[in-house]
Design a protein that fits this description.
eight-stranded mixed β-sheet; about 200 residues; single chain; alpha/beta
């Protein structure tokens, strides 16, 4: 399976709480819902739908999974929500227990087994393993060289701080721009793939 990262991102690299004011207030983050003024169904919504259509399963960190698990089941009946609810899901956590996995089709990956279990999933045959949000998990995947594609929806807003997916470890990682499209609101939907080291 390919591991594909899909993120709503501000121009200064923040991915925290794009969906709503109470989504993630860690660190005093006060700009929850910042992506809404830039969302359009065709370009941004289309990129999100396309990523989900190619996915065979979803992979989350605990916080993002809990946010999604609280939102999507109650939207049943909408085709997109039904797809989100039906698709297999994996959540990496050192604290969640199996009896807390209330969102249908969710499998727990214990935090101390995350890298080895995700390598196994990546080595398996199948479609994409799609990661949304989950900045801590994405940083781990980047550091382990486990990302096959980054799909970034970069929005023309500066948030001045918040959670990011990129590492601050001094390592050089070269990416290839595979495609880009720009919405009328100035959102750049950019798809990147890592360039193999020579």
């Amino acid at each position: 399976m390919r591991i594909v990262i899909s993120e709503f991102m501000s121009l200064d690299g923040v991915v925290q709480a794009p969906g709503g004011p109470e989504e993630d207030t860690d660190g005093g983050f006060a700009h929850g819902g910042w992506s809404h003024p830039f969302f359009d169904p065709e370009v941004v919504g289309g990129a999100f739908s396309d990523a989900l259509a190619k996915a065979e399963a979803l992979l989350f960190g605990r916080s993002t999974w809990q946010t999604m698990a609280a939102a999507w089941p109650e939207r049943a009946g909408d085709p997109f929500a039904d797809q989100m609810n039906a698709i297999p899901k994996y959540v990496v956590s050192g604290t969640l227990k199996d009896d807390e996995l209330t969102w249908d089709n969710t499998t727990l990956i214990p935090g101390d087994q995350a890298v080895s279990r995700i390598r196994e999933l990546r080595d398996a045959e199948g479609g994409d393993l799609l990661v949304m949000g989950s900045p801590t998990l994405v940083r781990t995947l980047l550091s382990e060289g486990l990302i096959d594609e980054l799909r970034l929806m970069i929005m023309p807003v500066l948030l001045g701080g918040g959670k990011k997916i990129f590492l601050d470890d001094g390592a050089l990682r070269t990416l290839e721009l595979v495609s880009t499209v720009i919405s009328e609101a100035g959102v750049h939907v950019c798809t990147y793939r890592p360039v193999a080291e020579r």
